[in-house]
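To: structure subgroup
Subject: Chain for Friday's discussion

All,

I'm putting the inputs and outputs inline so they're searchable in the archive.
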Amino acid sequence: MTTLAQGQAPQGNMLMQLLPFILLMVGFWFLLIQPQRKKQKQHQQMLTELKPGDKVITAGGLCGVITHVKKDRFQIKVDDNTRVDVLKGSVQNRDTAE
């Protein structure tokens, strides 16, 4: 029969203590982080697919039609004589309402 010296713990015990923490981190990854990354990719893809003539809604609530696509912004026509430049990141989604 072997005995452990005082102050030493068996190696298996250390793994069993870390297992709940590891499982919790994996759970956070699949429940929180992964869906958010997927949503960001979809938003980025939507921004790259926008072209002149598309109706959009900005995060600030402006609704309009894209007239020009620039490197980092869109020019949006919000009224007959009113055009506004908005950053691409501020476009929230396409306006599908007629």
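Points worth raising on Friday:
The helical segments are 11-49.
Strands lie at 55-58, 63-69, 73-79, 82-87, 91-94.

D.
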